[in-house]
Amino acid sequence: MTENKKKMGLTTRIVIGMFAGIALGVLLKLVAPDSAFVDAYLTNGLFNVVGKIFIASLQMLVVPLVFVSLVLGTCSLSDPSKLGRLGGKAVGLYLITTAIAISLAIAAAVIIQPGTGLELSTDAVFEPKEAPSLAQVIIDLFPTNPIEAMASGNMLQIIVFALLFGIAMALVGKPGERLKSFFEDLNEVIMKLVLILMNLAPYGVFALMAKLFTETEFGAILNLGKYFLLVLGVLLLHGLVTYPVILKTVSKMNPLIFLKKLREVQIFGFSTASSNATMPITLEAVTKRLGVSNSVGSFTVPLGATINMDGTAIMQGVATVFIAQVYMVDLSIADYLMVVLTATLASVGTAGVPGVGLIMLAMVLGQVGLPVEGIGLIIGVDRLLDMTRTAVNVTGDAMVSVIIAKSEDELDETVYNDANADQQERDLS
């Protein structure tokens, strides 16, 4: 038997780590719910330290990976007008999938009525931050200090600066070619670092899951069981049905291969609950396993991690109907259309703002006259749903990348259809 066959696959090891962490967390919650030792030395000790180091390690790679890969992709474009075409397709597709997501959520909530008959109260207070205007968002796209943008992780400003820098490299001639060689070497080093961290992922995922399920209040989930299961069901429907149907319809690519190759990315997204933290893994999978060219993937993946909020839109759709039903407010067809429009446009208008999901929900509730205080009813179960939302979002990022790459003739279909693509490099790492 070969060494590769003996070695357990990375996806399998991550899945084992995830379920082992969940099992241990639930066990500790049931056996020692108020243990000071568990809280001090495990939940906020070992699990917290290992989990935060894992997340920090992924986040550490985001800015250099996005900047370097996007500069490389941009300076390699033979046709500068292609950037505008890529941007238009990407933003258009992300907005369309967001509109589909929230429409599905509203339809499901109206049919199932998760808030009917509930008498819920909460002590939680939610004070939404003020959302910036669309004009301010456009102004803020352009960094006054690119180093500060990188230090603060402002992804939209980093994308804009990288695009401009890459265009300048392409236009300057031989100095740009010499600099391109440096960036190519740097990109190889960063991608190798991504592979190294991926092999440490089972331990990080185990710690994150153990900490989360040790702290989870299952009583809140039981009280909001209908809402929780409905959001979860629509998220799974969108991620496992809507995306594959769109992929097959638009690009004619096999959606089963797509989902199989994206399992690691989805697990990372679920575990970290952060599209940005998962971005290095998403970009690695999109370019190395799905065959998307770097010039496309380096643009669509960071953009998607910033503005693609299908999972959040689903939560907003169900939450809006749920809160309306709890407060016994009847919403008209015009109100539902306003919810779809507001949430879809807000996914771009509030991109890059901390706490963006709840800011968007506050905006949606305000548009249809529902009390913002209703957000306090669902905060208790939002963490678990946030993890699933992120898994859905990163799936959408990858799907849009494949579709755009196919439309631009930048998709290597041999790599896409190769079940072992990138596997040898992973094993050697």
Molecular structure report:
- With 429 residues, the protein is mostly helical.
- It has 21 helices and no strands.
- It is globular, with a radius of gyration of 22 Å.
In short:
The chain is mainly α.
Describe the protein's topology.
Elements: H1 3-6, H2 10-31, H3 36-75, H4 81-112, H5 134-140, H6 146-152, H7 155-172, H8 174-199, H9 201-215, H10 218-223, H11 225-251, H12 255-261, H13 263-272, H14 275-289, H15 294-307, H16 310-326, H17 333-349, H18 356-367, H19 379-407, H20 413-417, H21 423-428
Helix pairs in contact: 2-9, 2-13, 3-7, 3-8, 3-9, 3-14, 3-15, 4-11, 4-15, 4-16, 4-17, 4-19, 7-8, 11-12, 11-16, 11-19, 13-14, 13-19, 14-15, 14-19, 15-19, 16-17, 16-18, 16-19, 17-18
Q: Please give the share of residues in helix.
A: over 70%
Number of distinct beta strands: 0
- Helix vs. strand class: mainly alpha
Distance N to C terminus: 20 Å
Q: Give the overall average pLDDT.
A: 85
Shape: globular
Q: What is the CA-atom radius of gyration, in angstroms? A: 22 Å
> Low-confidence parts, pLDDT < 50 over ≥5 residues?
1-6
Number of helices: 21
